[in-house]
Amino acid sequence: MKPTTTHALSALFAAAALLAGTPATASAAATAINFNGAINNVTGPGSMAAVGGLVTTFNTISAFGIAPMAGGDRQVMSFSGLAPLNASGLQFTHATAAPNTTGYTILMDVYYTSIPNYVSLLQLDNANDGDLFARGSGAAGINSDYAGASLTSGSWHRIVATVDNSLAIDFLKIYVDGTQINGVDGYDSARFDLSDPSFLVFADEDGETAAGYISQFYFEDRALAGSEVQAFGAASAAAIPEPSGLMLGAAAGLALVGRRRRRSS
């Protein structure tokens, strides 16, 4: 077998192994948002809007003069740091029936030129304190539970948070570029349920926010497995695929390599 074929097979078998156990279909409530000149719903029932005076602009990554993203020079949105004002941020309406019983996943591709001591990423109740924070140290978490060092400024990162209220340990898992950096114990329904039909992104009640950029946003009304999050990988200009699409792509790749092997044997 040629070395190039060996490498291709290794990668594809690794992808297939990674995705083993992934459901064949993604949730009907999976929503993808992009920022190509506006806040656009790409697929799914959810919607997003800038509220509370959030200042936004749209342009390409290169036009903003920030570090490039793998895969190309896509359109992104800049957002301002917020004044201490509730109900100010990106409001996402999830349009899902029961995320408190199914769990949920939130994914975003973001870039910060600077990360101060605390930066709120999510405010799930549209008020009060933020519910997921990045730190200037590169960590992420909530309360006194912060870990990791890879969520740095000056680079694009794919941040994924999964919430599974059936778990006593690691009910909240936080990933950066496909790698889990923290797991938070002790589900707190007051903070992490989605009783409200919407929640805020980049919002905080006392101004622990920062200006930045967002490229893509994704919500699904189930907690994705670690292998599925790993398959999403790092921030990329390519559109975010649903987990079922990743699995089907790996299977198609395996079939293609198999055919090539038969022809060359």
Question: Which helices and strands appear, and what pairs or packs with what?
Answer:
Layout: H1 3-18, E1 31-34, E2 40-43, E3 47-51, E4 56-60, H2 61-64, E5 75-79, E6 89-93, H3 99-102, E7 104-111, E8 118-123, E9 132-135, E10 140-142, E11 145-147, E12 156-163, E13 172-176, E14 179-184, H4 189-192, E15 198-201, E16 212-220, H5 226-232, H6 243-264
Antiparallel strand pairs: 1-2, 1-16, 3-6, 4-5, 5-16, 6-15, 7-12, 7-16, 8-9, 8-15, 9-10, 10-11, 12-13, 13-14
Helix pairs in contact: 1-6
Your description of this structure?
By secondary structure, the protein is an alpha+beta fold. It contains 6 helices and 16 strands. The protein folds into 2 domains: 1-25 and 243-265; 27-241, Jelly Rolls (Sandwich), CATH 2.60.120. A hairpin with an 8-residue loop joins strand 12 (156-163) and strand 13. Helix 1 (3-18) packs antiparallel against helix 6 (243-264).
Summarize the entry for a quick read.
The protein is of the alpha+beta class.
The shape is: globular
Rounded to an integer in angstroms, the radius of gyration calculated over CA atoms is: 19 Å
Poorly predicted tracts of residues: 1-26, 247-265
Overall tally of domains: 2
Instruction: Report the β-strand fraction as a percent range.
Output: 25-35%
Query: Secondary-structure element sequence?
Result: HEEEEHEEHEEEEEEEEHEEHH
Helix tally?
Answer: 6
Oligomer state of the chains in this structure: single chain
Largest sheet: 9 strands, antiparallel
Number of E strands: 16
CATH class of the largest domain: Mainly Beta
Distance between the termini: 9 Å
**CATH architecture label of the largest domain:** Sandwich
> What is the name of the CATH topology of the largest domain?
Jelly Rolls
Mean of all residue-level pLDDT scores = 83
Indicate the percent of residues in helices: 10-25%
Structural class: alpha+beta
